[in-house]
């Protein structure tokens, strides 16, 4: 079974401070990991995926298979980063995308 | 734009009534998903379509929930004899291929009184 855990529901950080959202997963096969973001009054959208290995809006995430983690990081938070962030896992031929419960990020000016 | 379209955007109904939620995916997207978004529960997978067939219905919470997709396009999620615990935002998403990148609609907010 696929399972995604995001331990913190709410994360408040000051503008300019680093932000890290934790994501741990459980899956026996070879996973694909994603971060999705939902800004206020907007639809849920893809932020980044581990196979792309790219930085989007200053965010990066590294897949650590040993720790089964895919934490999202940004060195300097901006006010526009305030949003709901979801970690998601897709397992091999199973096309179901399993989401965590999400992290609400509030960036304090 | 030509994004995923869902209707109605808001639906208030009485306990025991049936509701239908509609999803128009992005043209050409073969995969279509339904999720339920509840406060504190994140996104709960309901069902997935590849074309018109549903290989994975395991997320449907009870037999009051059903979904169909016709012509490889529009999908309808039906909830019969609604209960208060069915209140949530129902999200539809489509995908062009088995990539894991989903394109979401704005959701249908269901409130059961």
List the helices and strands and how they pair.
The complex is a heterodimer of chains A (109) and B (113).
Chain A: E1 3-5, E2 10-14, E3 19-21, E4 24-26, E5 31-38, E6 45-49, E7 60-61, E8 72-74, E9 83-91, E10 94-99, E11 103-108
Parallel strand pairs in A: 2-11
Antiparallel strand pairs in A: 1-4, 3-8, 5-6, 5-9, 7-8, 9-10, 9-11
Chain B: E1 5-7, E2 10-13, E3 19-24, E4 31-38, E5 42-50, E6 53-56, E7 65-69, E8 75-79, E9 88-95, E10 103-104, E11 108-112
Parallel strand pairs in B: 2-11
Antiparallel strand pairs in B: 1-3, 3-8, 4-5, 4-9, 5-6, 7-8, 9-10, 9-11
Short description:
With 109 residues, chain A is mainly beta.
Attribute tags:
heterodimer; A: 109 residues; mainly beta; 6-stranded mixed sheet; 3-stranded antiparallel sheet; 11 strands; 0% helix; globular; B: 113 residues; 7-stranded mixed sheet; 4-stranded antiparallel sheet; 52% strand
What does this structure look like?
The complex is a heterodimer of chains A (109) and B (113). Chain A is mostly beta strands and 109 residues long. In chain A, 0% of the residues lie in helices and 49% in strands. Chain A is built from no helices and eleven strands. Chain A has strands spanning 3-5, 10-14, 19-21, 24-26, 31-38, 45-49, 60-61, 72-74, 83-91, 94-99, 103-108. In chain A, strands 2, 5, 6, 9, 10 and 11 form a six-stranded mixed sheet that branches. In chain A, a hairpin with a 6-residue loop joins β5 (31-38) and β6 (45-49). The N and C termini of chain A lie far apart (41 Å). With 113 residues, chain B is mainly β. Chain B contains no helices and eleven strands. In chain B, β9 (88-95) and β10 form a beta hairpin. The mean pLDDT of chain B is 92. At the A-B interface, β5, β6, β9 and β10 of A face β4, β5 and β10 of B.
């Amino acid at each position: 079974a696929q399972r995604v855990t995001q331990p913190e529901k709410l994360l408040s950080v000051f503008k300019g401070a680093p932000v890290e959202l934790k994501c741990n997963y459980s899956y026996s096969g070879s996973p694909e990991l994603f971060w999705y973001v939902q800004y206020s009054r907007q639809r849920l959208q893809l932020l980044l995926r581990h196979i792309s290995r790219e930085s989007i809006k200053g965010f990066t995430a590294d897949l650590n298979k040993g720790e089964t983690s895919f934490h999202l990081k940004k060195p300097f938070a901006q006010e526009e980063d305030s949003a709901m962030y979801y970690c998601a896992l897709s397992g091999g031929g199973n096309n179901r995308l399993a989401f965590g419960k999400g992290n609400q990020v509030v960036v304090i000016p | 734009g030509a994004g995923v379209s869902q209707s109605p955007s808001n639906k208030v109904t009485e306990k025991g009534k049936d509701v239908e939620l509609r999803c128009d995916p992005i043209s050409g997207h073969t995969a279509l998903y339904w999720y339920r978004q509840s406060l504190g529960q994140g996104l709960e997978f309901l069902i997935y379509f590849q074309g018109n067939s549903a290989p994975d219905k395991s997320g449907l919470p009870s037999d009051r929930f059903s979904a169909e997709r016709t012509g490889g396009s529009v999908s309808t999620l039906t909830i019969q004899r609604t209960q208060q615990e069915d209140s949530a935002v129902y999200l539809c998403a489509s995908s062009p291929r088995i990539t894991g990148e989903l394109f979401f609609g704005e959701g249908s907010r269901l409130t059961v009184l």
